[in-house]
Amino acid sequence: MIFASDTPTLVYLRLVFSFLIFACLYCIFPVFVQVYCSNRENHKSNPLYPTINQLYRALWFFYITAIIPFLVDTFEIEVSGT
After folding, report:
1. What is the value of pTM for the model shown?
2. What is the 3-state secondary structure (H, E, C) of the chain?
3. Structural domain boundaries, residue 58
4. What is the chain's pLDDT, residue by residue, as a tens digit (82 residues)?
5. Does residue 21 fall inside a structural domain?
6. Where are the transmembrane segments (predicted)?
7. Within-domain flag for 81
């Protein structure tokens, strides 16, 4: 969220930092999903499969919930009361 007291440099740095974080995260995540799905059958016989599966589900939850504040902040969606 951009505040009135923010300097242009601070706003610029915040936008660049946010972009870099989300670009890195959303470039790495599809690769992880592809590798996980291609190796799922092999991992099912592994005793660590429940842990790996839980990590996979937790990452999906994280990425879905992480994009919502980013979209709200980027597009400055305002909910007006009645």
Report:
1. 0.57
2. CCCCCCCHHHHHHHHHHHHHHHHHHHHHHHHHHHHHHHHHHHHCCCCCHHHHHHHHHHHHHHHHHHHHHHHHHHHCCCCCCC
3. 8-75
4. 555 566 778 778 878 887 887 777 778 888 888 999 998 888 889 899 999 899 999 988 988 887 777 677 666 655 544 4
5. yes
6. 12-33, 54-72
7. no
